[in-house]
Design a protein that fits this description.
227 residues, alpha+beta, Arc Repressor Mutant, subunit A, 3 domains, four-stranded antiparallel sheet, three-stranded antiparallel sheet, 10 helices, 7 strands
């Protein structure tokens, strides 16, 4: 297989002596013919394998480097992976075309992100700080001070390399944590919304639908099964 699209948590995927631990809706790519092995958690997993035909792969490789080596796609592709999951559940006449278009969108988004390689080292530190403190809702000044740069430099780096502001990045992270809680717990949506830092369920629903293309209630129905 030329690419590997994860829909559900899997313990790890080994390729060329490297180990990739996969979270929900993360995407792993590997070149054609690369030897690998999979190891699954005790709870099992479900995943989607996407095989790119040789002729198509040759054409795509003229415009992208993501198939050159095994690795996890670094671009913000999880919302696209969620839409693929949803389309696979539709099973109507348009599903095949919709999924093919979403896979191409995923490749395009990843390829655009792969070109932004010269990010300053402190940008990674800023991201780690946000991941560690997102629940405390740190300010722009807090993040900038943590990595010892001016706030304007922080904003420019996020825009240039992540195509979002620090605040938008933090909002995405809050939504990602909320999405995990929706899929793995039976807590009420309103409670999860407040824990993720949203004013109320309506505000949360609007932000969730904008990012993932469905409401929290629809996501719960999709991941926990239809009642």
């Amino acid at each position: 297989m030329n690419s590997f699209l994860r829909q559900f948590p899997i313990a790890e995927k080994k390729s060329r002596a490297r180990t990739f631990e996969c979270a929900r809706y993360e995407v792993i790519v590997r070149p054609a013919g690369a030897r690998h092995s999979n190891r699954y958690g005790a709870g099992g997993a479900r995943c989607v394998l996407v095989e790119v035909a040789p002729a198509t792969l040759t054409r795509l490789c003229e415009h992208t480097s993501i198939f050159d080596r095994p690795g996890r796609l670094q671009a913000d592709v999880q919302p696209i992976a969620m839409r693929i999951h949803r389309e696979l559940g539709q099973r109507d006449d348009a599903s095949a075309i919709a999924v093919e278009g979403l896979v191409l969108e995923l490749i395009g988004e990843s390829s655009r992100g792969a070109r932004a390689r010269a990010a300053p080292r402190w940008l990674g530190d800023a991201r780690e700080y946000i991941h560690a403190h997102w629940a405390e809702r740190p300010s722009l000044g807090d993040v900038a001070a943590a990595v010892r740069v001016h706030p304007s430099s922080l904003v420019r780096a996020f825009r240039a390399h992540l195509r979002c502001s620090p605040a938008e990045y933090m909002r995405r992270l809050r939504l990602d944590h909320a999405r995990t809680a929706l899929a793995t717990t039976a807590r009420p949506i309103a409670e999860i919304a407040v824990a993720a830092g949203f004013y109320d369920q309506a505000h949360f629903t609007t932000a969730f639908r904008r990012r993932f293309g469905m409401t929290p209630a629809q996501f719960v129905q999709l991941t926990r099964g239809r009642s």
